[in-house]
Amino acid sequence: DRLAGPGPSKWISQVRRRSSLLSSRIEEEEGYNEEEMSYVKQGEDALKKAISILSEQEGWTVEIVAANGDKVLSKMLPDIGKVFKLEVMLEQHPDSLYEELVGNMEQMGEWNPNVKQVKILQKIGQDTMVTHEVSAETPGNVVGPRDFVSVRCAKRRGSTCFL
User: Where is the START domain (predicted)?
Assistant: First the structure.
């Protein structure tokens, strides 16, 4: 299966429709403490913001177009700075892709040259996790490895995945 499907304008309208799944209020679930609920809210808020940025089609500048058609685009946002968007065609079933990016997240360093290590520190329900990542060194060690602690939110509805 090709994940490309329709062109970007149809994909973006699908994102707009699917983003409504995130609009519901977060209900405090039994067993989650205040800190865990805070992580869930941070992850869902960040995901809503990312979907909002992607759904705005105006103002994107093409940075690079690879020979295979992969595109890197950028946009300046007043409250954030420069953001990047990668558009690629993948010959991969959505189930396999989701499993690799979410289910096998700790193996990311094996295939992503920018990542040295990912460790899941805490899982909160099905959708939220707190991770520790170590970035890889840049060539010539211009920038050494850096550590990040992230709240990640993963949502899936049918063949649409939000990470």
Answer: 55-163
Task: Transcribe 49-116 into DSSP letters.
Answer: HHHHHHH--TT-EEEEE-TTS-EEEEEEETTTEEEEEEE----S-HHHHHIIIIITGGGGGGT-TTEE
Task: Give yes or no for a contact between 135 and 146, defined as CB atoms under 8 angstroms apart.
Answer: yes
For 15-67, write each residue's pLDDT tens digit.
555 445 554 444 445 578 999 999 999 999 999 999 889 888 899 999 999 99
Are the C-beta atoms of residues 85 and 75 closer than 8 Å to each other?
A: yes
C-alpha to C-alpha distance for 115 and 108, rounded to whole angstroms: 7
Residues 113 and 138 in one domain: yes
- pTM here? 0.71
* Cα radius of gyration (the chain): 17
One domain for residues 74 and 100: no
Task: Quote the CA–CA distance of 14 and 79 in Å, as a whole number.
Answer: 26
Structural domain of residue 82, as residue ranges?
58-89
